[in-house]
Amino acid sequence: MSRAADERFVYDFAEGSREMRDLLGGKGANVAEMTRILGPERVPGGFTITTEACVAYMGAKEFPEGLEDQVAAALARLEESAGKKLGAPADPLLVSVRSGARESMPGMLDTVLNLGLNDDSVVGLAERTGNERFAWDSYRRFVQMFGNVVIGIEGARFEELIAAEKRERGVSEDTGLGVESLRALTARFRELYDFPTDPIDQLRRSIGAVFDSWSGERAVTYRRINRIPDDWGTAVNVQRMVFGNMGDTSGSGVAFSRDEVSGEPEPSGDFLPNAQGEDVVSGVRTPRDIRELAGWQPEVHAQLMQILRTLERHYGDMQDTEFTVEEGRLYMLQTRNAKRPAQAAVRFAVDAVAEGLLRREAALLTIDAEALDALLHPTFGADATYETLASGVAASPGAAKGELVFSAAVAIEAAAEGRDVILARPFTEADDVAGFHAAVGILTSEGGKASHAALVARGMGVPAVTGASSLEIDPEAGEIRRRGGEVVLRAGDRVALDGTAGTLTGDDVPLVEPVMGEAFEAVLGWSDELRTLGVRANADTPEDAERARGFGAEGIGLCRTEHMFFGEERNEAIVAVILADSDEDRRTGLRKLLPLQQGDFEEIFAAMAGLPVTVRLLDPPLHEFLPALPEVEERLREATAAGSADVATLEHDLARIKTLQEVNPMLGTRGVRLGILFPAIYEMQVEAIFAALAATRDRGLEVSAEIMVPLVDYRRELEILREQIVAIGERVGVTRGRDYTIGTMIELPRACLRADEIAEEADFFSFGTNDLTQTALGFSRDDIEGRILGRYIDVKVFDRSPFETLDTPGVGQLVRMGAWLGRKAKPELKLGVCGEHGGDPDSIEFFNGSGIDYVSCSPYRVPVARVAAAQAAIRG
Ligand code: PEP
Ligand code: MG
Q1: Which of 844-864 are b and which e, b meaning 16 or more Cβ less than 10 Å from the residue's Cβ?
Q2: What's the pLDDT score for residue 1?
Q3: Phi, psi for 538 (deg, rounded to 5)
Q4: Ligand 1 in contact with 560 (CB < 6 A)?
Q5: How many angstroms separate the CA atoms of 800 and 796, rounded?
Q6: Is 835 in the pocket of ligand 1 (CB under 6 A)?
Q7: Under DSSP, is residue 718 helix (H, G, I), strand (E, B) or coil?
Q8: Which one of 68, 169, 200, 659 has the fewest CB atoms closer than 10 angstroms to its CB?
Q9: What ligand 1 atom has the least distance to the C-alpha of 835?
Q10: What is the CA radius of gyration of the chain?
Q11: pTM, whole model, 2 decimals?
């Protein structure tokens, strides 16, 4: 790409502003803004080289045309205002060269300090400051940093030389090294590489090195994790150095406008006398609390406090600043909106409104809705140190610890005895779900975030790490091995897992319990007033329903009835139904299940009295309920050998299971297809719903039941089911529209494309974005994480899982089309989303603009969704 020779690549600080973040990077834009607010005396002068210059450099592998001239001109202006020249022997101007991307990437990009020193200017610096040690310390640091950052020499080689010098001199701290030592160290450092003495050469190469650091491994990894695009590039800030290491009236520090952990309205931070900023952040010396600044230099402390207030008011957000005190004079080097944990975010928002700093809308937008999840689950203590045994998918948030068990049955037994257990399975099946209730945490070696295990665990609020693929989980042997290697854990071992981070450890990590404090309640209250999108919960049990209501759910958007067939007794009954030869036998089995199912519905209706409850008829592939083929074969072999009377039954079951086997069960006999092939199952469920409805009303409670048919492709499918449901209703005396409604999941691409026809049969749609993603993209929701996801993110096919955040250009367009067509045919059609995306803030923003009435998500995501829905409404 050719570039205009007069393209502007360099801006003086005095020219920039915070609106220019994309071009000047966060640091450059904020330093410019700060220069305007606080005045040039408080902010050392300098200039910013744009992110566009970096992008051009990355493409061409050389500075774009005009950059060097523009840097020279900006440097000349800086020298003019500072009254000294870069690296001049008698009185040198020194500069720092710092990276600064659009979004801060703390510690990931490079920085060079004290640039401009050489054998001549170090003498001038010593003379001008009357501080020879300071001058040599600065020079030593520069040669070290340049060697490390620009030349690429390992930091440890410099540290070894420093350690040797300290040993020789018998001192323990760097500050104990005198001028002679620093001089000797500088000389030794210079033997490691060819140090450029020309300041302009130093500057040119440092700028190149900062550009290069954007493509360094550390930065690339960080961007991947934080979803920062690779093509943004970093800006480079060249700033006049001020010195915190000039003696006892100098120092450096970091200061937050409020406590960065709790959010309390007291400034916090650290500082170190006689030190440069790097010393404070690198952890080489133990810093002092910012409050002690008042005792050390009261005037500086007062100025800093005033500045923090000014900056916070100006930005309307909590600030994170760096400052330097040079011989009693305070300079501000940078400011940015502070990163903060959820509790601090919530506290700040509430205080900011109370103080009149922000309006509610603006205060809500300072909160990262996704992070609020942490306020609802126990977590590993913030200071906890532990050795990670394995990493997997962070499938269900929260932390847990307990003893390792390998089967649902053992988990249930242990829980009955009051023991905390972590259930480990290679992957999970319907049978395991009873064990989920009993376990405090779940670990699997296969599966991802959209897998059955993950969504059941999230719904229950049980922390889970899935797809820990470095482990082989062997329930038979009762042990976990490294893949192809040694045993690392056995049944009964205590482990801790963090489902928020996706880690497993054998260490006894302290857990911190969550508190849903007043501030959080206040934030949720505002969210409810400001949002237009409804928020319901996906809940399958009365306990989940109650919990969801407690978290503010406005109804149930999805009750997955298949989850009601877990548990030994019910599982046996449903298996008998599935394996029955005739409709009559099937109906007999179903008669047993009806009262159980009715009881479940009654409790759920009662827990949600007055609010809508969407009950979905049975959906999953039949094989999920059936025993595995090899297992039945084995039982048959044993029974035959023993001459048992069970042989005939087992033979029958085996034959039936074989006929029901499908190569691709996810695309097989599930959803409405099940309803059409085996009408008796849905019939029983509908009868149970109606009976529960009547019984709950008899208790004086209001019920609003919505019957939902899954996996509909064709209008005719829903028509058949509608007729069947209405007929049952007429039989028992309930009427569609008055007592209940009928709707469908929209979770197949064809359903989106023909939504107008389907709407003719429906009172509501609920978009099942899990299956819609699976079928539109053709990725298996159960397998993508372990196999494809990581590599696809690496090679930038996409930057996050489409099962986590909706693929808006693809699947999102199907949702929009379905919503639009549906409403065109039937304006009063109610529209919901009940896939996992219903709890994801970015997806919620999209749904808010797509004509959706409500989202439905797991109970623990309800508060997150309430805040995210409000933010979407505020952003418009
Ligand atoms: C969906 O497919 O989005 C959905 C909610 O249904 P399930 O996850 O139960 O398939
Ligand atoms: Mg589905």
Answers
A1: bbbbbebebbbbbbbbbbbbb
A2: 42
A3: -90, 115
A4: yes
A5: 9
A6: yes
A7: helix
A8: 659
A9: 3
A10: 33
A11: 0.84
For ligand 1, whether the C-beta of 834 sits within 6 Å is: yes
Q: Which of 711, 747, 752 to mutate to test the pocket of ligand 1 (most atoms within 8 A of CB)?
A: 747
Nearest-atom number in ligand 1 for the CA of 562 is 9
Q: Could you give the residue numbers annotated as active site? A: 452, 834
Question: Ligand 1 pocket, 443 CB below 6 A?
Answer: no
Query: Whose Cα sits closest to atom 4 in ligand 1?
Result: 768
8 A C-beta contact, residue 209 and residue 64: no
Amino acid present at 828: E
Amino acid 369: pLDDT: 95
The pLDDT averaged over each successive group of 10 residues in the chain (876 residues) is: 71 95 96 95 97 95 95 97 95 95 83 95 92 93 96 92 94 88 97 97 97 90 80 96 90 92 89 84 73 95 97 96 95 92 92 97 96 86 87 86 93 89 84 81 81 72 87 94 91 93 92 84 97 97 93 97 82 88 88 94 97 96 82 93 92 91 90 94 97 97 97 98 98 96 98 98 98 96 84 87 96 98 98 97 97 96 97 96
**Residue 472 CB less than 6 A away from ligand 1:** no
Nearest atom in ligand 1 to the alpha carbon of residue 450 is 8
Beta-strand runs (E) in 491-616? 494-498, 503-505, 511-512, 534-538, 556-560, 612-616
Which residues, 6+ apart, have CB-to-CB distance to 291 below 8 Å? none
Give the distance (Å) from ligand 2 centre to CA of residue 496: 32
pLDDT digits (tens, 9 = 90+) for 338-362: 888 788 899 999 999 999 999 999 9
Kindly state the tokens that stand for 368: 């990262």
The closest residue, in CA terms, to atom 9 on ligand 1 is 560
748 CB within 6 A, ligand 1: no
712 alpha carbon to ligand 1 midpoint, in Å? 12
Answer positive or negative: Cα dihedral of 65, 66, 69, 72. negative
Write the residue with the smallest CA distance to atom 10 of ligand 1. 771
* Nearest CA among 669, 645, 648, 656 for reference residue 582: 656
Amino acid at 705: A
CA distance 484 to 489: 14
